[in-house]
Amino acid sequence: MQDTQSLPPPRVVIIGAGTGGLSLAIKLKQQLGYDNFTIFEKGHDVGGTWRDNTYPGCSSDISMVMYSLSTEKHDWSHSHGTSPSILSYWKDLTTKYNLYPRIQLNTAVTSVTWDDAMKIHRISLENVKTGEKWVSEAEVVVSAIGVLEVPRFAQIQGRENFKGETWHSARWPSDGGERLRGKKVAVIGNGASATQFVPCITEDPAVQVTEFCRTPNFFLPPVRIEYSATRRWIYRNIPFVQRFWRWLMYLRHELFYLLIFGSGIMRYLSTKIATYYIKYVAPKEYHEQLVPKYTMGCKRVIFDTNFLEALHRPNLDLNWDGVDRIIEDGIITQKGEKISFDIIIFATGYAADKFPLKVHGIRGSIQDYFVENNGPQAYLGTTFPGFPNFFTILGPNTATGHTSVIFTNETQADYIIQLITPILTRHVATIEVKPEATEEYNEKIQKRLAGSVFVNCQSWYRVGGTGKITNIFPGATTLFWLWLRKPKWGDYTGLGLEEWLQRRQKNKMWNVVRWCVTLLLLLGAAAAVGVVLQRNGALPRWLERW
Ligand SMILES: Cc1cc2nc3c(=O)[nH]c(=O)nc-3n(C[C@H](O)[C@H](O)[C@H](O)COP(=O)(O)OP(=O)(O)OC[C@H]3O[C@@H](n4cnc5c(N)ncnc54)[C@H](O)[C@@H]3O)c2cc1C
Ligand SMILES: NC(=O)c1ccc[n+]([C@@H]2O[C@H](COP(=O)([O-])OP(=O)(O)OC[C@H]3O[C@@H](n4cnc5c(N)ncnc54)[C@H](OP(=O)(O)O)[C@@H]3O)[C@@H](O)[C@H]2O)c1
């Protein structure tokens, strides 16, 4: 048998340089000092969500002390970051950890195929600029391709017939403001993205906006504040203060989970507050349509970014009649009214229920596996039976609607690092989750989801908007962290795993024995010294009593 320890270190491929992929890369360097990895990124730079979403007003709705890497504090100017500030934070980290040389930009992974004979993945790649194609190999592949990544245009008849300009909220043109000036603009959708940019674009009275809304959202008052110079100084200079604030924010977000998702009584109170807020700020004419009839929390609760106030502007109308079809110069509503437009902006979300990457495992593709299971599923959102040495960050049922996804990204990265360490040290060749563990886990979470608020409306958390809930995690992130803190090795199988676990167990036992023997020797030596001192009358008085 070949001496595996003399082989070069195994190769790790990370797909995607968003917050998930970068978190893992940083941790590989920080925790293991490991840098035999490559990140393939189809975009022109790192940042994922925060590179792509440049629409006006785009910002986080989670406080930045939480929506950042736990090990990397930063001098934030506001409680909640704008898209450019978040992007710049991640670009700085990429430079700080010298990751750019390990990232191949403009490089799309088109498929990943497991070669079971060679125990490696073959990764098909394409340069998105030149079209050049090639194949790379790696022992370990981690997909960090995100969920809110592939723009979804609503399936509205006639989109291709429109003669004016159209774009998606995640593909905002750099001169968008100029293009919109003096134009009649239709915005389709009223989710978190639309409600952030609509108040910004309607600040210009020369932009006339009609927003087509289908389902209302619950709003809570704005949360974003500017930090004072003193506060920033304290965060920068007094040790642990920012960390302490992070803990407090963590608890606040978890409390928010309990308020909205945890208990019926608390949800009732939260619903009252949100309804009162909507009615207090929005124009009376919209009250009936703006207050949701579904259970709060079923869709992402939106922290208002001046959207409700902006509804008072004369250049902004909400239209609840439904879009029937798009024609050459406008939109026909389901009531048969024709409205002319120069520009249509699709704020219609993302194809979050499809896994856009072709991955072939031992028995078939990941797409087949998802079809067999009525939608995406994984074990702890991270591993899939039949797909050795393949891992995901932000995989099925890992998203949160109440706290930082970066916390989830990090929790998964820490978990993956524990799983792949024996592969990276070449003690184990493959790691694969057992099918029965995956089934058991998914039964458990689907049972929790069946009794949750998420079944009460249409959302991107579900397959096709109304099917199986495959995106959201049914619990507070503390529970997610507890489940992923240490791998349950019994749920995994793999080549060399059993032997490695036995050796690890033996080493652990030997360590305990070593500690016990050392302790006994020390005690024995101390006792011997004591006896000698006593015989010579040199024992201190306070010790004599002993
Ligand atoms: C507008 C907006 C605001 C948000 N605000 C918040 C917030 O406030 N708080 C919060 O917790 N979450 C928020 N989210 C969710 C956000 O997506 C996550 O917080 C997080 O950024 C996801 O990071 P990721 O790395 O997992 O995925 P992404 O950021 O989506 O990154 C995935 C990367 O993979 C690359 N990629 C994809 N496919 C391939 C391929 N085949 N080959 C090569 N590269 C590929 C993409 O180009 C991208 O760079 C927001 C999402 C959106 C859209
Ligand atoms: N930091 C933040 O605050 C922030 C900002 C933006 C995004 N995000 C994250 O990204 C997620 C996605 O947000 P998003 O707003 O981009 O997408 P989204 O929440 O999926 O919203 C899409 C919107 O388009 C509407 N829509 C879809 N098809 C339609 C049709 N045929 N006619 C009319 N309306 C249609 C939807 O209506 P229905 O509701 O009826 O389906 C919904 O209002 C959020 O949930 C959040 O997690 C966060």
Automatic annotation (TrEMBL):
<dbReference type="InterPro" id="IPR051209">
    <property type="entry name" value="FAD-bind_Monooxygenase_sf"/>
</dbReference>
<keyword id="KW-1133">Transmembrane helix</keyword>
<comment type="similarity">
    <text>Belongs to the FAD-binding monooxygenase family.</text>
</comment>
<feature type="transmembrane region" description="Helical">
    <location>
        <begin position="247"/>
        <end position="269"/>
    </location>
</feature>
<dbReference type="InterPro" id="IPR036188">
    <property type="entry name" value="FAD/NAD-bd_sf"/>
</dbReference>
<keyword id="KW-0472">Membrane</keyword>
<protein>
    <submittedName>
        <fullName>FAD/NAD(P)-binding domain-containing protein</fullName>
    </submittedName>
</protein>
<feature type="transmembrane region" description="Helical">
    <location>
        <begin position="512"/>
        <end position="533"/>
    </location>
</feature>
<keyword id="KW-0812">Transmembrane</keyword>
<dbReference type="Pfam" id="PF13738">
    <property type="entry name" value="Pyr_redox_3"/>
</dbReference>
